[in-house]
Amino acid sequence: xxxAEKSSVTQGLTRESLIFQHSRTGRRGYRLPxxxxxxxxxxxxxxxxxxxxxxxxxxxxxxxxxxxxFTRLSKLNxxxxxxxxxxxxxxxxxxxxxxxxxxxxxxxxxxxxxxxERQVQGSLEILWTLEQSLREIxxxxxxxLQPVAGAHGELTGILMIHKALEKSGNPRKYILIPDSAxxxxxxxxxxxxxxxxxxxxxxxxxxDLDLLEKEVDEDVAALMITVPNTLGVFESGIREIADIxxxxxxxxxxxxxxxxxxxxxxxxxxxxxxxxxxxxxxTFSTPHGGGGPGAGPVGVAESLxxxxxxxxxxxxxxxxxxxxxxxxxxxxRMRAFYGNFGVLVRALAYIxxxxxxxxxxxxxxxxxxxxxxxxxxRDSYHLPYDAPSLHEVVFSDKWQSKHDVHTLDIAKRxxxxxxxxxxxxxxxxxxxxxxxxxxxxxxxxxxxAFCDAMIAIAKECEENPELVKTAPHTxxxxxxxxxxxxxxxxxxxQNPV
Amino acid sequence: MRFIPNSSEDIREMLKTIGKSSINELFESIPAELRLxxxxxxxxxxxxxxxxxxxxxxxxxxxxxxxxxxxLGAGVYHxxxxxxxxxxxxxxxxxxxxxxxxPEISQGTLQTIFEYQTHQSLLTGLEVANxxxxxxxxxxxxAVLMTSRVRRNTSKVIVSRGVHPEYVETLRTxxxxxxxxxxxxxxxxxxxxxxxxxxxHLDEAVFAVAVQSPNFFGVVEDYDAVRQATEQQExxxxxxxxxxxxxxxxxxxxxxHGFQIACGEGQAWGIAPQFGGPFxxxxxxxxxxxxxxxxxxxxxxxDVDGRRAWVLTLASREQHIRRGKATSNICTNQALIALAxxxxxxxxxxxxxxxxxxQCLGKAAxxxxxxxxxxxxxxxxSSPIYNEIFVRTSxxxxxxxxxxxxxxxxxxxxxARYFDEEKNGFLVAVTELHxxxxxxxxxDELEALVGGAE
Lengths: 497, 454
Prior knowledge:
The structure holds two protein chains of two kinds. By secondary structure, chain A is an alpha/beta fold. Chain A is built from 16 helices and eleven strands.
């Protein structure tokens, strides 16, 4: 409990008015230069019917109001800068600040995406260099940097598979997806026009090869598999899985959300994977920003290169770079301009900092840290799948639920101890899941403090379950009425005049 | 390894607790033949000093907007970014937090999103704003897909030729395997979406019509005219696309003219061009469409003690619950960029947003008047514009821009990139950052180049 007492996350703050409520008529937070051209007659340049006279309801605040408001709001958040954030599969690792500085170099931040190629050779070199690094990491011959999120990468990959199959005469109908998959997998498959067939995981939480063999027929376009899967378990049969699919003319798509567990240790290309996306914000440390922006580059095998989105970044023999938009078999463009360039800069800065030896170390220590937590907590929490864990470990609330305390309660109680809870809504195949991913950037003492808290809570579940069930007690607000928010949605602020 | 704190002593102790003798043993579930026996073929690790040197060297090879006066637009604009926007973004509690799935310790992010939603609603005149989408092009795609879900027995969307060509390309990519037909409505001689062309495509199969204002050629569209032209088709949804969001400071909002959806790009709200991203897509809809919205929404509620609080809501539309039947596959959004937009919009506020827009409008009008007097310079459309001008000269636009570049001016976006027949056409964008001297110099240089012998 010592930690719970000293770790109030709020510095005593529990609320902050909306910025609109700080508004006072006549306040200003800006100053523009004087308009130095002769004013035209407004009615002549923009007729009254096309314009508005004011933005009713918009706020009027000073810079002081703005700085204080957002600074106070920031204090109502828990972040990775404040401590361990073991959100499984989201990979909350330390975000190096040098990356932020690199993305803000004016020569990079102030380039326009429609400049002539000769004017943006630096930006193109960054894209090309990052692509080279990712090719090496993936073990695949070509990468597109255009997708701006993992799910965007999934859609890109599935559209490419569709196009390739269509060209060979039949785009097919189904995408196979294990029941342990991220929700984005089936959503992306459906968005690309496919029907989804779910595959049941076996007792080890992995894919059953016999079942797969039976399910793959001439109507199956691809299998979307996460390696290692959402239980943190490596699909040891991945090469056989690839063979089964390839024999039937189907593709193997890999959700690379968990690439951080084997970066530098093994390569997707050598596993027989045809397409993989990598969430750069996870493996390559770009900040999550409260939900984004991310980047989801996609690597492909030789057979899918013609279908990559346009444009691709290329290098001429003289060392200059250009964008190739003339790719007749391409699926098209996944987004205006070239993707989340600023995020790509941060990822490249990280790869350059870690270098050849560092990236392997990332996986090694991420896996070590997860296994350390597994070893320390396995007497206190039930381990539903005893298969070896890589970078994350999934427990369940089976032992605690006997006292009518559930995963959600344990998660909320952890907040009182100053930790962000693990992932609890996932994976769906574990009832009452607690999915813990510490990453490589946590020191042993932080892991120990977390494990101590988890063990203390397990004890509380037996001795004082009410305390856990009514948690959190020290946060800015306590448990919310989520049903009310959905039943009577209030989605913007109305000034009560 | 400055981002990996554990020492070899720590590692030894941890391995002992785990009951393994080496880290390699932890990877035994990866088949040996798949494990690499050598490091990746990447350069060795760099120190901060080396990294800075490398990136600055690379950045120096760009001609960026701080080295030349930029008149580039076409969907990305050089606006002013007040200092406090970026400084607040760098606060670790915003920068390094995750999606606010645990509301008790994420009230900061949730409240800023709720405020962002409110700003969107006020600016567009529509009720329900999304918590942010990737960018303008994908927001446009999501708007179209959303309307196709609302009106299920229909299959056709009419898109104006004034919608950004890269947005239309993105839409075509997304719908290539879906039963959705994209038909294009022409522009009329004045650069507005042709109402005749809309009428020619209009039938019961049409679920939506999408018009961009100001459109790709800078022309302000007449929302009322589009409404009247489409009113006969019951249930049809009108989508306003806004690629230059600062225009909402002066243009009449689409919600006031019978448009049920506004979508677009929020880059103008304090976000640097950064070679095309990250930006922030916005999507705002009439209240009756809220359950069809893709992505995240934040709503108001109370906690067990009755305190006002914020939470992600209406999640049953989303991929982590509905999986293959979700309204979209969006998971990561652009929360940090939406925060930048929120800070910018708050700081500029009611009058500042209007003033920025007035300056863009007034300065573009001034440049237009100056260009009108130049022989050999033609501005094909005389309709009202906001801050971007479609210019055609007697010279090839690419060569012209190269000549402008030698004079320290990024002179515009040549249109041949998008339209084969427009070899001599280009777009010139003006913002509040331009001074009269910039505009005069632009006109003078253009006059010299167009008038001069080549």
